[in-house]
Automatic annotation (TrEMBL):
Domain (GGDEF): residue spans on this chain: 263-392
Organism annotation: Roseateles albus
PROSITE patterns in the record: EAL (PS50883), GGDEF (PS50887), HAMP (PS50885)
Name of the protein described by the UniProt record: LapD/MoxY N-terminal periplasmic domain-containing protein
Domain of life: Bacteria
Sequence ranges assigned to domain EAL in this UniProt record: 402-639
Gene3D superfamilies: 3.30.110.200, 3.30.70.270, EAL domain, LapD/MoxY periplasmic domain
PANTHER family linked to this entry: CYCLIC DI-GMP PHOSPHODIESTERASE PDED-RELATED (PTHR33121:SF79), CYCLIC DI-GMP PHOSPHODIESTERASE PDEF (PTHR33121)
Length: 639
């Protein structure tokens, strides 16, 4: 039983006890008063009657007539005249008069009154006595009316007191409920400050809770700052602050394997020629300043364009990956012009070679760097600031293909020609936590099912991602209903921009309540960074239905989400660029541990995606990760 209910019952009991006591005391007092008044009435009437009888000079007939006249007034139960020797001389008796009060009331509260007795005389001679007993029914009637009025009045007062007590308890309960909700929010990883009540005791409790929440929040922010330091140490070049070669390659491989992104992209390599000779002629400080200027020029693109990747490959080489078709050569030329204007200020003899390449995004990392190195080698054969580029296809041919694919995607969605693949997420003991289910579409009837990397970029451009995601969720719910396995579906961040998407998704999930409890929805980290309010609203509407919400491809961007603790997430999947190579790099392992500490403080499960190396998996188990997915997990499950 809750504390409020106990207090309420205690107050109710006290009020009822007070009312019952008041009624009992009042009734007893009234009964005593009426009984006393009736006794006095009997005595007074007996004395008056005896005086009247004494004036009859002992005439028996007149005395009998006078007694009868007095009795006939109707208020007497009996009038008895006894002679001086005690013998009965005359008596009048009346039947008991019925009372208007209930019989149980009369039996519970009897009024016992002795008859009034007075002496009758004739001159100085006593000739007998008279006894007068009045009816008690009138007293019971008055006592019942008095009890009814008092009960009604006290009942009304008790009702008002109960209402007042309820309102007072409700006012007291509100800050207690707020404190409970605040504590539960902290458990869920959300930090809420509540208004301080006016009640001194509750005000102290609220102040203590708010202070605790602020302290926990400051600890979380400190962890985020520390995580940022660890990220720089693990992933960044110390001189320029750009991604190191290892991390850039991991980021590039992750970007090439993701579903979202353009069909074609570009890669630009920038090389500062004769780095050793420049160090000798200009000095290391001047060359370091030149390298920092180059890094700043290259980093300007990722800062302005979402999805761009930049890194320092070695002492003299920089790389810039552009998620857009037919822009590599133009970007390389713009970089060359900007650096040609700024680098000579650090000394003479500075020259750059730039190689640019445009390729289909499905190309391997080896091909990307092979083509880019070939263009860079041609540029190095020339003096000055030189740009060479390689284009692997014309924009016109791609545009014609895009129009055809857009039509095919629409037809595939209309015909529900889609299927879900299944990749396991395993825990340390090898148990399947859930299945990742990317969607494939059959773009041509009776044709092969195409992976999302081939058609999703055009679906984003055509604003069809909402329809794609609704189809994927529908297929997942149907599969869960058949085998009862946990499944997760990828949701494109672009779908959140569709004003009706969340409402349609909620309606779809609402009609499959059993399967919804085993459904997970995953969005890329960019959804939390760029569309936090939309992500929050999606979680607010779907989590009460049992749907789990997670972020995939998570990395350094989490540190830039100011209200991550309010997102309502259930789990986070670390990007392959974060976890690859963690077994042989202490700095990367420290960064992963820092992310685990931060995310665990928000009560989130943490998984790693895209793992291939068993050594990396073991290193992540040592970091106490909750689960892993990728080729290693798929191969282990198939054993």
């Amino acid at each position: 039983m809750s504390l409020m209910r106990q207090v309420w019952l205690l107050l109710l009991g006290v009020v009822l006890l007070a009312l019952a006591g008041s009624v009992a005391v009042s009734t007893y007092s009234t009964r005593q008063l009426l009984q006393t008044q009736l006794q006095i009435k009997n005595s007074d009437n007996a004395a008056a009657l005896a005086l009247a009888l004494s004036q009859q000079h002992g005439d028996g007939e007149l005395m009998e007539l006078l007694i009868s006249a007095q009795f006939d007034t109707g208020y007497y139960q009996s009038v008895v005249w006894r002679k001086a020797d005690g013998k009965l001389a005359f008596e009048r008796q009346a039947a008991a008069q019925p009372s208007k009060a209930p019989a149980w009331f009369v039996a519970l509260l009897p009024i016992a009154v002795q008859p009034g007795v007075a002496q009758v005389s004739n001159g100085w001679n006593a000739i007998g006595s008279v006894e007068v007993l009045s009816h008690s029914a009138y007293a019971h009637d008055e006592l019942w009316r008095s009890l009814s009025r008092i009960s009604l009045l006290l009942g009304a007062l008790g009702l008002l007191a109960s209402i007042g007590a309820y309102l007072a308890l409700h006012r007291i309960r509100r800050p207690l409920d707020n404190a409970v909700a605040q504590a539960r929010a902290v458990v869920d990883g959300s930090f809420q400050i509540i208004e301080e009540p006016q009640v001194p005791e509750l005000k102290g409790l609220t102040q203590a809770m708010n202070a605790m929440v602020l302290r926990v929040k400051s600890m979380f922010e400190a962890q985020a700052d520390q995580l940022q330091v660890l990220r720089v140490q693990a992933h960044c070049d110390p001189l320029t602050g750009m991604s190191s070669r290892k991390h850039f390659l991991a980021e590039l491989e992750s970007a090439l394997t993701r579903d979202e992104g353009p069909l074609h992209a570009g890669l630009v390599l920038v090389r500062l020629r004769d780095l050793a000779g420049l160090n000798q002629r200009l000095g290391r400080p001047a060359v370091d300043q030149a390298l920092q200027t180059m890094a700043k020029a290259v980093m300007a693109y990722p800062e302005r364009v979402r999805g761009c990747l930049a890194g320092r490959l070695n002492g003299a080489d920089f790389a810039l990956w552009l998620p857009a078709p037919d822009v590599a050569a133009e970007t390389a030329q713009a970089l060359s012009d900007a650096l040609q204007a700024s680098l000579p200020a650090f000394g003479g003899g500075i020259q750059l070679a730039l190689g640019a390449v445009n390729l289909p995004r499905e190309s391997t990392v080896g091909r990307w760097f092979g083509e880019a190195d070939a263009a860079l080698a041609r540029a190095e054969n020339q003096s000055g600031f030189v740009v060479e580029s390689i284009n692997a296809g014309s924009a016109q041919q791609r545009a014609q293909g895009e129009r055809a694919w857009r039509s095919q995607i629409s037809e595939a969605l209309a015909g529900r020609r889609g299927k879900l693949l299944q990749y396991p997420v395993l825990d340390r003991e090898g148990r399947v936590l859930h299945l990742e289910c990317p969607l494939q579409l059959q773009l041509e009837e009776a044709g092969e099912f195409e992976p999302a990397t081939r058609w999703l970029p055009l679906a984003v451009r055509s604003r069809l991602t909402a329809e794609v995601d609704l189809l994927a969720v529908a297929l997942a719910l149907e599969a869960i209903a058949k085998d009862g396995l946990q499944r997760c579906v990828n949701i494109a961040p672009a779908s959140l921009l569709d004003g009706n998407f969340v409402a349609r998704l909620r309606d779809q999930v609402f009609h499959a309540p059993q399967a919804a409890r085993k459904l997970g929805l995953e969005l890329a980290e960019s959804a939390a960074v760029n569309h936090f309010d939309l992500l929050f609203e999606m979680g607010r509407q779907l989590r009460p239905l049992g749907v789990k919400l997670g972020l995939e491809h998570a990395g350094a961007g989490l540190a830039h989400v100011d209200r991550l603790y309010q997102a309502g997430l259930d789990y986070v999947k670390l990007d392959v660029s974060v976890v690859t190579g963690v077994s042989g790099d202490a700095a990367r392992a420290a960064f992963v541990r820092g992310m685990l500490v931060m995310l665990r403080s928000l009560a989130l499960k943490v998984y790693a995606e895209g793992l291939r190396d068993a050594m990396d998996v073991q290193a992540l188990w040592d970091c106490e990760l909750d689960g892993v997915t990728g080729p290693w997990a798929t191969a282990r499950l198939g054993q």
